[in-house]
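Hi! If you just cloned this repository, the fastest way to understand the data is to look at a raw example. We've pasted two of them here, unedited. The first protein comes first, obviously.
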Amino acid sequence: MKKYQILKRLSLVSASAFMLTFACKDQFLEVPPTASLAQAQLSSKAGVEGALIGTYAQLAGKGFSRLAAPNNWVWGSIRGGESNKGTDPGDYSNINVMQRYEVPANDGDLNSTWQAKYEGIARANATINLANGSKELSATDKTRIVAEARFLRGHFYFELKRLFGSAPYVDETMDYGKGIEKVVATADLYSKIEADFKFAYDNLPETSSAAGRANKWAAGSYLGKAYLYQAKYADAKAIFTTVIANGKTTNGKKYGLVSKFAEIFNAENDNNEEAIFAVQSSMNTGNVNNANGFDDLNYPYNTGSDGPGNCCGFFQPSFSMANAYRVSADGLPLLGEQADGTPDYNLAANSVKHDYGVASSAGFEEDANPLDPRIDHTIGRRGIQYLDWIEHPGANWIRSQPYAGPYSPKKYIYYKRQENTLTDGSSWTRGYATMNFNIIRFADVLLMAAEAEIEAGSLATALGYINQVRSRAANPAGFVKNSKTGANEANYVISTYSSLGDQASARKIVRMERLLELATEGHRFFDLVRWGVASKSLNAYLKYESKLLVTKFGGASYTDTDALLPIPQAQIDIQGTSVLKQNPGY
């Protein structure tokens, strides 16, 4: 949480006092562990709160892997076809096979992702036990702390479920050190996840003095998401309806959409009315991982003083992702597709003009065709103003165009005016922004609610939710402007829907809207899988991208067994095949 740190571990015993007191007693051999806290201290109000804060800290996957973070930039966005790994073939090379759907079970980042989720679960369980055993907590504080810990545990298990399918379920009732490693993995995690979120929803307060804490409405939103992933549409519809009507942020703001799309991704506007649940960040704490340490690679390459980060050229949006923002003359997305699954937006006549293979010193004429304005808040393109830095120069900010294409990431990038005030520059790169990452934001909830309404047959209600999201994107005050003339940087055209048509048409519309609104935020792969269209969509994506990036995607394919990652082989080796069974296809 912003400005909160995990309690520092302190030595509890003075060596000199220890010697004087115990030198002549048998207890001298019973040396308390140093650099640790006694049970009495941990069970104090401050100790229990500190354990809870430590559980929040694990949301960012600290101490494990950049791939363990909740932004799921590899597992959700790269594997979802929104972005390429970026940079060059030799840099963080194990991601190369991940984006080709060839993840090996012995991959270190795969294992670290698994470990990071269980570290969060262990911290949540420890917090629950400390709270239940504490004599210093009021009944109100005890209930609230347990509810927060269960909310966080629900999050970590939700991540394990959608990444791996099955996993051992361990809660606070299980005694660590006495056979816990023999708990057999189960695919029946959703009932446990629902129970945690439901307990949190029923017992958490609406507001708190700390904006980053989970509250009642964050729990309700996450519960609705869990229902949606199980196709429990009636349950999802009911809880989303309540959340949309009554929900407020932990700092007391009625849920709503910020007026300008770019303000979602601006550290100056953290914990706004759209932020339902976010990983908090801070700077100058002695550890840059308290900033967005998981995003430190995901900046344009070699920008110098003209741009952010200076490193490392990862997470470059795909050609297909850019093309998705092409719209018809009336400002609506291109929803059609060819017989082979190729989306109409990837047809040659519709593809967005790019500078692939064009040097920054060479001339380049920008695309004049109509585009959804969210493209230039999501994707860094040649000739378009890049936040408050400069117009994107093209190849000079790309490490290897032949390998990764011409685009740069743009969401969750800090502004020039924020350098060293909302960034932590105390480490090897300038790319540690103190910008919160939204695990769930209100536009996401509106679109999930629209899905549930469509499946329930309530197309008029779904239309209203979708149009709320599109109306915000259509606010001309939020369009990307030329820094010199103030004119729009591209031909931005966007309108709302007058109708969703029939149910099949409505599904296409809401699914496309999730792509346009939530691109590069880690949702896409999981959406495609739960919709049952991953094979068709991702193979069409691979076919398209391989036309230009043949050395990266040539011969790659997606099959239904790729919907789940392999269980890390290191974990199977530790626990045995009677506990963990490898997923099919690996």
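Ok, and the second one:
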Amino acid sequence: MHPTCLIRTLLVALALLFTTSSAFAQDVEALVNALPEGGYSDREKVIFDLAATGDERVAGLLDALGEGDLYVREEDGRVVAGKRAGRDYALTDALTGEELGTAPSSALEKIRVNNRLRRAVRSAIGQLTLMSPSPPVRLRAARSLLRNADPDSLELLGTALAAETDPQVKKMMETARAAIIIKTDAGIEEKAAAIDLLAARGDREALAMLTGAHSSAAPELQPVIERGIAGIERKLAMWDGLQNVWYGLSLGSVLLLAAIGLAITFGVMGVINMAHGEIVMLGAYTTFAVQQVIRTSFPGLFDYSLAIALPLAFLVTALVGIAIERGIIRWLYGRPLETLLATWGLSLFLQQTVRTIFGPNNREVGNPSWMSGAFDLAGLSITWNRLWIIVFALVVFAVLLAVLNRTPLGLQMRAVTQNRRMASSMGIRTPWVDAMTFGLGSGIAGMAGVALSQIDNVSPNLGQSYIIDSFMVVVFGGVGNLWGTLVGALTLGVANKFLEPYAGAVLAKIFILVFIILFIQRRPRGLFALKGRAVDA
């Protein structure tokens, strides 16, 4: 082709494209201007005509219409979006979002919608985004159509399904199509296939769809729906059981964190420390104090607040623990009743001190971004904060095992525990070991408070919620045995979560307590009893 002819052809094509685009824009604007005219039925037709244009700007306009934020400006008849700004409305162009200043309510006439039109808007937005070049946008559109299951969307959904290449989006579209088909007058075989597809989805949304379709279904389809419902219920029962296991492991990790420090002070040293819960509370308040400083002075470091709070909480509570051991506990070794009463009085003192400094109300401790939200794993819903607490509890457990088995302090602790006089005669400073042991247990309790601040209210009563459960875990697992503490915490956590749906939270705890009492009658030294222990006070 001659270059001149080629240039001429290109110019003609560009002119045609420009003319087509201009006509297309005019068609969209004409439909927008037609929105206020006629009744609700006319408005519904315009909504779907707008969606059929495929113009991305229409999504925002329809969203404003569904929210009741679309108006006609009386001075020029222009369709605008309006948001209240004081006594007036801030106006923007309904299509482009261009700012148009403000206007009083008397200068605007609202384009009214009813529930039917709102459903039409949701369906139209779903249709509009169904052909988007972005897979996440198409996936959201398919989910919207699945929730609404509007039969008017079936044809467009079929077109989009035929062109879809992304497997995840295609699966969602097929499910949405099945949900729509069971609402139409399709044939028996097609409806049965749609029912099987929804049953294979196996979630609560599919169960609700099949349950809703059962009463109005043809007699020959009702057995198919009933089989699908039964299959989903079996699948959900299995996932509910696994979800309870997850909740139980989550609760068990919390109990492990609260009890692992007690396993040292009570299990290793034989000291009944009723102020252990208040040591946990001090760790939580240390986290609160750190976050307050970060919020006011270094807001960019908020995501690192827990990393900063952990060593500080360990240091603060370890020093408090050493002070308690040197000031009170050292005079009461071998006198468990006096130790119990003294530490109980100390717990009241610590609670009142915290009330005086921080006040009696709950304090807000925020979640860093990496501990916020949740995600789905197969049929399980897992929150990030609980997952990280489980990981943290296991890391603390592993580090404590290494300290007790691989360090000089751990060796001396075990020597003093087994035979105090022999350890002293070998040159071990038993008072120093006692203080360091109590400080270690208290420091771990403080770190537990940091973790608990992410899932529980930080208040002066925080520790009281865990002290009884912590003693139960230590006694059930075996006094002085860290592996017993781990197994006991996870076992009691899972058992508690399996009992709660049937007995309620309070009765579940009572049943657990009765079980432990009966168990201790048969095995007084717990699941994992220490052998050869001879603590000589």
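That's it. A detail worth noticing about the second one: Residues 1-26, 532-537 have pLDDT under 50 and may be disordered.
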